Amino acid sequence: MSVPIPAEDPRYIPNRAVVDPSAITDNVRALKSALDEQTALMAVVKADGYGHGMLATARAALEGGATWLGAAHPAGALALSHAGLDVPILTWMYEPRTAAALLPDLVAAGIDVSVGSMEMLHLVIDASRSVERRARVHLKIDTGMGRNGVLPSQAAPVVQAIREEDFVQLVAAWTHLTDADVPSDPATDQQVDVFDSTVAALTEEFGTIPLQHLANSAALLSRPDLHRDLVRPGIAMYGYPPVETDLPLRPAMTVTSRLALVKEVPAGTTVGYGRLHTAASTTRLGLVPMGYADGLHRAASGKVSVLVRTAEGDRVVPQVGRISMDQIVLDLGPDSVAKAGDEVILFGDARIGHESTPAEDGPGPDAAGSDGPAATTAYDWARAAVTIPYEVLTSINARVPREVRP
């Protein structure tokens, strides 16, 4: 006889990913300010809103001025539609089995569908016929990414097939840029040239394609010439611009925990698997019940610092030793007054803690003009783990309960 294992009760898990929807709303407003009035903004909320929660993120983005939503997988797009978010939604990642199960519902719901091959087009046509509704199609052109998308030389037959089919309508052409986060890289201009020449040839042969969209977060911020009809910010919307910008973007996720144990140890004490760290002198160590099973990157071991909130103020201290599955160790310093139960901010906004309420927040210790330390960011973890903020954010998994601020 099997005995079901109950799910962990989030009330008794000390770790939290605190999501601040107002940050997403403000970030989208800031991004919108960089656009011409005629350019629409699609909020990309794939991967459960980059780990922030898809529906909360979508609503916050719409409040900030987004007028489109983008979700990679059809199930996500349907969830957005079923939630009553009455704006155009685009989805682009499906294979035959998923298409057979979900594309009819997508088309019936009026969700836009990307097509990147003749085979994908036929899946959409079959779905459209089954529900007797015309599908809105975005033609994905592979201009150098080598992933989804029709090659330029194969685009014309796909568009011709669309034009000949009553149950599909071509509403957009789009592509994805490989190196827009490196503005000096000529690859972006090369991709744009391929895209523009392909669209021009298609237009000459088959007529105007109503919409064009190329710009991700990086191109939105660094290449206004590529804004076209629609931009598709992802990571910038969550407060982590991939290129330098003067826009006031702030992190929307703050990951917190609490000290489980504090102890004084003598010089020579080693810490963690492999004894990577040895205390050079007497110090106080703090144990945090969060590790790589929660999404903290093991590759960042010993190369990142975090903020500890104590009765005497905030202090940024180093993580030492190997990051374990369920825990990390901090070197609090010999004079630390930190104690078990004190809050630890792994990354995010030091003004937000999972035990605080909006009325308590106020300016906070890291507000502009204050002398308190700022919290570590997802950028810091990314540098330490030799990865990118996208992966840091989406790695914080379901074992860490989400708390959405009101």
Automatic annotation (TrEMBL):
Residue ranges of the TM segments: none
Keyword tags: Isomerase, Pyridoxal phosphate
Annotated positions binding substrate: R147, M325
Biased composition annotated in UniProt, kind: Low complexity: 359-374
Enzyme class: isomerase
Highest taxon above the source species: Bacteria
InterPro entries: Ala_racemase, Ala_racemase/Decarboxylase_C, Ala_racemase_C, Ala_racemase_N, Ala_racemase_pyridoxalP-BS, PLP-binding_barrel
Catalytic activity of the protein: L-alanine = D-alanine
Catalytic machinery residues: K46 (proton acceptor), Y273 (proton acceptor)
Keyword Repeat: no
Pathway terms, separated by semicolons: Amino-acid biosynthesis; D-alanine biosynthesis; D-alanine from L-alanine: step 1/1
Residue numbers spanned by region Disordered: 353-374
Protein EC: 5.1.1.1
SMART domains registered for this protein in UniProt: Ala_racemase_C
MF-aspect GO terms: alanine racemase activity
PROSITE patterns: ALANINE_RACEMASE
Keyword Glycosyltransferase: no
Cofactor field: pyridoxal 5'-phosphate
Record-annotated Alanine racemase C-terminal domain positions: 252-405
In-chain residues carrying the UniProt-annotated modification N6-(pyridoxal phosphate)lysine: K46
Function: Catalyzes the interconversion of L-alanine and D-alanine. May also act on other amino acids.
PANTHER family: ALANINE RACEMASE, ALANINE RACEMASE, CATABOLIC-RELATED
Family: Belongs to the alanine racemase family.
The protein's name: Alanine racemase
Organism, as annotated: Brachybacterium epidermidis
Gene symbol of the encoding locus: alr
